């Protein structure tokens, strides 16, 4: 269960994911799978105590979505230590790209594009100074698979990001560069579930994978627009 809006409005529903985690762990042991990939999230850090955020920094999440991700990491790590089932844990930041949910679920890039194509304003919750690290889905998938196939990172969480966060206001301006007539509206900040700053330390990823995201945000947005154009 994903999306800021959805998980903040229905927080208890997030805990249903725990059953899925338990079942996958148990079945992996029962059927002796070779390896588990657990896609965790930057939400485990909550509001960071320092920037950039390294993998061994303090967990500071206070919301169910982040807590379930923490539990999942611990669950699969325990199975690795007890039963020897290797696990790769990757912590995603803000992934975006074609085929992302364009509904009102809180994925800011897709929501911005959906609104601007419909002639609606770009709505920002808060002052727009909050920062996010955006990674195009193609880069994210490539780096995740590389981590999964690298046994040197078994049992060690890895941030998957660019290490170059931008403000949400800058994201809106990037969209306005393509659609100059688009208006930006600042709305009251969400009352819960919103993290102010998010910048990952990706030195471990670069060291182990010898790779990093290559698609610029402007190019990624153009790819999403092309997808929407062809979808019509």
Q: Give the number of DSSP strands.
A: 9
CATH C-level class:
Alpha Beta
Low-pLDDT residue intervals, each spanning 5 or more residues: none
Structural class: alpha/beta
Average of pLDDT: 92
**Quaternary:** single chain
Mass-distribution shape: globular
Distance between the termini: 28 Å
**Relative strand content:** 5-15%
Instruction: Please give the share of residues in helix.
Output: 40-55%
CATH architectural label: 3-Layer(aba) Sandwich
CATH fold-level assignment:
Rossmann fold
CATH homology-level superfamily = NAD(P)-binding Rossmann-like Domain
**Biggest sheet strand line-up:** 1-2-7
Order of helices and strands: HHEHEEHEEEHEEHEHH
Structural Rg: 18 Å
Number of helices: 8
| Main sheet specs | 3 strands, parallel
Tally of domains: 1
Structure write-up:
This protein is of the alpha/beta class and 232 residues long. It has one domain: NAD(P)-binding Rossmann-like Domain (Rossmann fold). Helix 3 links the parallel strand 1 and strand 2. Helix 2 runs parallel beside helix 3.
Highlighted features:
alpha/beta; three-stranded parallel beta sheet; two-stranded parallel sheet; 8 helices; 41% helix
Write the layout of secondary structure elements.
Layout lengths: L3 H6 L7 H14 L5 E6 L22 H20 L3 E6 L1 E3 L11 H10 L4 E4 L5 E2 L1 E3 H12 L9 E3 L5 E2 H11 L5 E4 L15 H7 L7 H15 L1
Parallel strand pairs: 1-2, 2-7, 3-6, 4-9
Antiparallel strand pairs: 5-8
């Amino acid at each position: 269960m994903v999306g800021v809006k959805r998980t903040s409005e229905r927080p208890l529903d997030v805990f249903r994911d725990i059953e899925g985690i338990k079942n996958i762990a148990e079945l992996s042991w029962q059927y002796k799978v070779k390896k588990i990939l657990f896609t965790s999230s930057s939400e485990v850090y909550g509001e960071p105590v320092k920037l950039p955020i390294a993998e061994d920094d303090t967990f500071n999440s206070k919301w169910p979505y982040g807590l379930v991700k923490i539990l999942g990491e611990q669950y699969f790590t325990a199975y690795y230590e007890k039963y020897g089932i290797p696990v790769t844990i990757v912590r995603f930041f803000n992934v975006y790209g074609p085929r992302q949910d364009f509904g009102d679920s809180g994925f800011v890039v897709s929501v911005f594009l959906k609104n601007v194509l419909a002639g609606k304003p770009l709505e920002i919750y808060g002052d727009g100074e909050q920062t996010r690290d955006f990674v195009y889905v193609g880069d994210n998938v490539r780096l995740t698979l590389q981590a999964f196939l690298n046994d040197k990172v078994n049992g060690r969480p890895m941030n998957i990001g660019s290490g170059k966060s931008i403000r949400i206001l800058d994201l809106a301006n990037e969209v306005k560069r393509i659609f100059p007539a688009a208006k930006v509206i600042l709305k009251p900040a969400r009352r819960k579930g919103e993290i102010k700053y998010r910048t990952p330390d990706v030195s471990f990823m670069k060291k182990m994978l010898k790779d990093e995201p290559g698609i610029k945000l402007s190019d990624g947005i153009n790819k999403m627009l092309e997808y929407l154009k062809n979808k019509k």
